[in-house]
Amino acid sequence: MVNNYIRWFVPFVIDPEDEYNYISYENVAIYVSSTYQYIILAIIFSKGKPYRKSMFTNYAFLVNLIIVFGVTAWLNIYPTDAVAEFFELQMPPDVPYRFIFLGVGFINLLLCLLLETFVLDSHFMTVTVQNKLERILPGARPRYEEVESLLQANSTWPPVTSEDLASTFQRLDSAYQSRSTLNEMDNLSLSGSESGSIRLTASTGKQRTRLDNGILSGVDNPTYRGDEHSNESTRL
Question: Where is this region: Disordered (predicted)?
């Protein structure tokens, strides 16, 4: 069976006249395998707890994975001649041989899941091995953990008040709302003053018009009286 598979294999030879010609069986193997690797990395590093929600709650991400995997599997198994030429792929003549790339990608995904779940996230790796490395190699401890330990050991830093964090945020929120209320009241006062002055001006102009026409009677406002005397003096 192996002889049947390798019988058609032709190794890649660099063309000195066309150095950008990479069409070969090796190019197909590298391209398809690396594409599966990118999909596997997206799945492995999108795990849920304890840092985020499960990736199954991100529907856009799942749709993207399905589309990318479908297109990659199609390019791997049975692309059209035009598509293979566009991607510069020299597909193996035996179609069953192409499923080997798909099987290798699935095995790689399974091994990565097992490694991340049962080895790298285990208590032995995250606690035991990390503590031993910190004792053997002082520089292996992250800098933020050193700063956190120093702050925990110093009870006077950072200086905090007696109120808790929720009370602090509530007090800040109340101050912000009070400031917003004062700004709104100022805006209403300004708009009321402007509208009052407009009404007063319009009313005064109306009364003056009546004075000029000689039809005003019984006005008790001193302002209007002044306007009346001024108009009479003007007539004289």
Answer: 202-236
Nearest to 34 by CA among 88, 76, 82: 76
Question: Could you report the per-residue pLDDT of 114-166, keeping only the tens digit for each?
Answer: 998 888 877 777 778 777 877 787 666 777 777 888 888 887 776 666 556 66
pLDDT in tens, 162-202: 556 667 677 777 777 777 777 777 776 666 555 555 444 44
CA distance linking residue 128 with residue 173, whole number of Å: 45
Tell which residue, 44, 31, 38, 34, has the closest CA to residue 111: 44
Domain boundaries, the chain: 2-121, 199-236
Three-state secondary structure call for residue 167: helix
Q: Rounded to whole angstroms, how far apart are CA atoms 219 and 211?
A: 11
- Encode pLDDT of 24-49 as tens digits: 888 899 999 999 999 999 998 887 77
